[in-house]
Known about the structure:
Distance between the termini: 39 Å
Number of strands: 2
Structural class: mainly alpha
Helix content: 55-70%
Strand content: under 5%
Largest sheet: 2 strands, antiparallel
Number of helices: 21
Amino acid sequence: MQQQPQTQHVEKEHFQQFRVVSNNAGHAGVTGHGALSSNDERGMWCQWLETHLSRSLGVAIANLLHKYFMWYSAYLFVIIGSGAITMWLLDHGLLLLDAFYLATSAVTMTGLSSVDFGACRWTTHCIIWLLLPLGSPMLLSLVPLVSRRAMMLRMSPTSTSDDVFRMESMASVSGAFGLLSEPGDESLALGMVCVFVVAYWTVVQSMGWLALWCVVPHGAWPTLFLATSAFHNAGFSIFNLPLHNCGFAPSMLSIMMVLILCGNTCFPILLRVLLRSACYLCPRNGRYWRVLCLLLRFPRTCYTQLFPFYATRWLAVITPALVVMQIVALCLVDLFHAPGHGTKTAIMNQLPWAERALAVFFQSISTRTAGFSVLDMKLISPTTAFIFCACMWISVCPMVVVMRSTNRAERTTGYYTASAEQQQEKDAAILQAQLTGFMSQNSTMLLLLFFLILLAEEYTTSEHDVREHRFLFILFEFCSAYGTVGLSMSDEAASRSGKWSWPAKCSLMAVMFLGRLRGLPDSIDPAFHFGTLSGADDELEFVGSEGHDALQEPPVPQSLLL
């Protein structure tokens, strides 16, 4: 954007020339038939405004996506502030700090509550329910796709101005796939992804709500809220989740487990399955079939949460493996007997075997991302608390690591023409580095925030109290906030952080926000990038028509290229 002043100067000259031509035409119209009527002049003005508004809109879209993280964070701040102030104004029994706490917890999909959420006013429940889709990571991931597609539809094929978008010859060269393709292929691929994601988001929640409504005797609104919260892994619920001596508990918890998995870790897997199924159903060798094949072959150039087949396979193996590991750990600690004693642990003391098994399985799925609990969390042992903390810290690690390891910042010729095996080797080489980076991300800021929380609590209570009784509770709440999970070792309906001092609460809200942002892709992610496809290879220079002969067009895919 260094040439923006020059662009504005050129636009000013064009506008002045338009005024001169318009005035001359108007004067000429006094004596001859070359006159411009008021309708014609108004049409010219509208055309001029539409052209320059389209260019301004495109510049705004490009700036938004080039500074994606800044605008993403700003959007979250705006809806948090708006939701908190609205809740505070409508619920006079809710403090302003608690309103901001609830709004932050809802937008970040955490689920921690500083008050008894079930006892809050119905308006608070409605606002929290609205904040969940407004802050939905799945829906917000579509913003770059919609923006890119809108920009493509507004651009003419002859737009080659470097100071606007640097999207030369988009009509003949697809920037999404890096190979010769028909005009509009990238726009069609982006539109397909948007339709599939929105349909998936709507249908899964609707089916989950209807299923819960049929089995849970709490009415339409509580089950709708629970379905939305479970799908977004938010952890909020208007009523307590029953387990002991409850006939509908197995059905309800089973539906919730499906919603939790579909709304988070399993989403990339199921999205690829849907696209593959659509590819099977499309007429072979048609345009939709060809674009779907390209989308399955080069998914990361279009959408951050759509991975190649081998990466999707990794995720499909890692996700159940983590669940099994947590089941084994909980069985060793709580399901059978307390270590070293031979008696049942307090948390499982009153549950029969079937309910204990159901509770362990549900907590193994819910603990890492959702934060729902059917157990009395204040009774968990230190070993179980450690297992929960480790799972909450891992959180969405598998999906984010796979997303970042399949990133293609350079987008060279080798990436687009290499086989899937070669791409898999490159991704596997950087997988460990991405895993280490994710687990240690924001470490300095987190240490500072944890220190501030401990310091604030020592000043408001006592050093002895924090050291002897509350340190484990604070650490557990901290891990829950950073993992955007929402579990709390509380003996009340509200989280333990609800009794913290205001500096500690504000610090924990910052931890929630950092936890939400760590699930985003890298800033150099190609799915957010605009511009020509260029890299280290001299072969790949998509500038004007010179790039048309740089790559040989590959054969039409003969399979789904999985």
